[in-house]
Specification:
The protein has 383 residues and is mostly beta strands. It is globular.
Length: 383
C-alpha cells in the first residue's frame, strides 16, 4: 500500500520515444490465425463489434517468458485475427517485478488504429499494430524499481495513464494524458492519489485515492472537460472502508463502490451515486457481502444497471442490480472453478459487455466472456 507522500513535478513531462522497428514482425503476426488455445489477459472494445484482446499462447507458471500477442475482431468475436505486437513479454505477477519493467499486462484502444499496451511498460501504435513505439514518460518514474503504468483509459480524443512512479519509495500515483493520435504525454497538474482509482466518460474523468483516512474520508479529483480539475471531498459510509471502484454512466451520473474486506471472502460493500459529476455523492444502498471485489461497472446512460464482479474460493460470480442498488441478483460466471481473477469488465452499449476471466499464468480457465442482455447472462467467446 502506498504512503500518502506527494511530490511536485512540472506539468509537462519529457517523453522519450524508442522505435522498435517491428514492421516485419507485425506482418508475420497478422498472417497467423488465432488458435483455440489463445489465453486472454486483458480486453478493450470500442463497440459491440470491434475490439482487441491481449493474451498469450502456451503460457504457464513454468513458461514465464511468454510473448504478448494481440487478437482483434470486427464482428463481435465471431472471427479473430492476430495483429502486430511489439517484441515484449506478458507481465508475470508471481515473478520479480524489478526485472519486468518492459513487460505488459493490459490493453487499451481508442480506435482501430490507436492503441496501447501497458502495465508496467508502455507501448503505442497509431497504425493498427503495424508499428509500435516504446514510450518512457520520464519524470520521477523509476522502471528499475517497479515504477510504471498501472491503468489506462481512452475517451473523447484523450488517452489517460495512471502511473506508480516508484513503489519502493512509497510515492503516490500520478496522472498523465496525451491526445489519442500522438505520443505527446504530459503530467496532469500535481495531482496524486494513493492506490489511485480512475474512470472516464466522454470528456469527463475522475481520479481518486482508494485509501481512506480517519473515518474513511478521502477526496475525488473530477473534470467535466478533461482540462479543468476540481477537488471534492468524498467519504465512504463506514470506518476502514476504501474506494474500490468508480463507474460512470454519464459525465454527470457516476457511481462509487466502497469496500471493507472482512476476511474469509466476506467484504462489506456500499454503493454511492453522484448526479453532479462527483461534487457530492449519497449512499444508495449496500451490496451483498459475499466475495472480494474484482470489478465494477454500469451501463452507459443507465445508472440503475449496476454490476459488481466478485471472486471467492468457490464459484466466481457477478452481483447485478437493475433498480439502482435496491435489490441484487447473482449471475454465474461460466467456465470458472472459483478463485480466478475477473478483469476488463465493461459495457460498450446498453446491452453488450465484455469481461476476461483468469489469465495466461493462472493454470485455470482463461476466457473472454460476452453479454448481450445487459449482464443478465454471460457466454464464452471462442477463438
Amino acid at each position: 500500500m502506498h504512503s500518502r507522500i506527494t511530490r511536485t513535478m512540472c506539468a509537462v513531462a519529457a517523453v522519450a520515444l524508442i522505435s522498435l522497428g517491428l514492421a516485419g514482425a507485425a506482418s508475420t503476426a497478422e498472417a497467423a490465425g488465432v488458435p483455440a488455445g489463445f489465453q486472454p489477459m486483458s480486453a478493450s472494445f470500442q463497440s459491440p463489434s470491434s475490439g482487441f484482446v491481449l493474451g498469450g499462447v502456451g503460457c504457464t507458471h513454468v513458461n514465464q517468458a511468454c510473448r504478448a500477442r494481440l487478437a482483434a475482431t470486427t464482428d463481435g468475436g465471431a472471427h479473430w485475427r492476430f495483429v502486430g505486437t511489439p517484441n515484449v513479454l506478458l507481465f508475470y505477477g508471481a515473478g520479480n517485478v524489478l526485472t519486468q519493467a518492459s513487460r505488459v499486462s493490459g490493453v487499451v484502444f481508442a480506435s482501430r488504429q490507436d492503441g496501447w499496451l501497458y502495465g508496467p511498460g508502455l507501448y503505442a501504435t497509431h497504425d493498427g499494430g503495424a508499428h509500435w513505439q516504446r514510450i518512457s514518460l520520464g519524470g520521477n518514474i523509476v522502471p528499475s524499481r517497479g515504477g510504471g503504468v498501472t491503468a489506462m483509459a481512452a475517451s473523447a480524443g484523450t488517452t489517460w495513464a495512471v502511473v506508480d512512479p516508484d513503489p519502493f519509495r512509497g510515492l503516490a500515483d500520478e496522472l498523465y494524458r496525451s491526445p489519442v493520435g500522438t505520443n505527446a504525454w504530459a503530467r496532469v497538474g500535481t495531482m496524486t492519489a494513493a492506490n489511485a482509482v480512475f474512470a472516464t466518460s466522454g470528456r469527463a474523468a475522475w481520479f481518486a485515492s482508494s485509501v481512506g483516512g480517519t473515518g474513511s474520508s478521502t477526496y475525488v479529483w473530477a473534470t467535466a472537460d478533461g482540462v479543468r480539475w476540481h477537488k471534492y471531498p468524498f467519504g465512504c459510509p463506514g470506518t476502514y472502508y476504501e474506494l474500490a471502484g468508480i463507474a460512470p454512466a454519464s459525465p454527470s451520473h457516476v457511481l462509487f463502490l466502497c469496500a471493507f474486506p472482512q476476511g474469509m471472502s466476506q467484504t462489506e460493500k456500499d454503493v454511492l451515486l453522484s448526479v453532479n459529476g462527483g461534487r457530492t455523492a449519497h449512499l444508495i444502498g449496500p451490496a451483498p457481502t459475499r466475495g472480494n471485489v474484482s470489478g465494477f461497472a454500469v451501463l452507459p446512460y443507465r445508472a440503475t444497471m449496476i454490476t459488481i464482479a466478485v471472486v471467492t474460493p468457490g464459484p466466481d460470480y457477478l452481483y447485478r442490480s437493475a433498480n439502482g442498488g435496491k435489490t441484487w441478483g447473482q449471475v454465474a460466471v461460466p467456465g470458472t472453478g472459483g478463485g480466478v481473477s475477473l478483469s476488463s469488465l465493461s459495457y460498450v452499449s446498453p446491452t453488450v459487455g465484455w469481461m476476461v476471466t483468469g489469465g495466461p499464468f493462472l493454470g485455470g480457465a482463461s476466457q473472454l466472456l460476452r453479454t448481450t442482455d445487459a449482464g443478465a447472462s454471460w457466454h464464452q467467446v471462442r477463438f
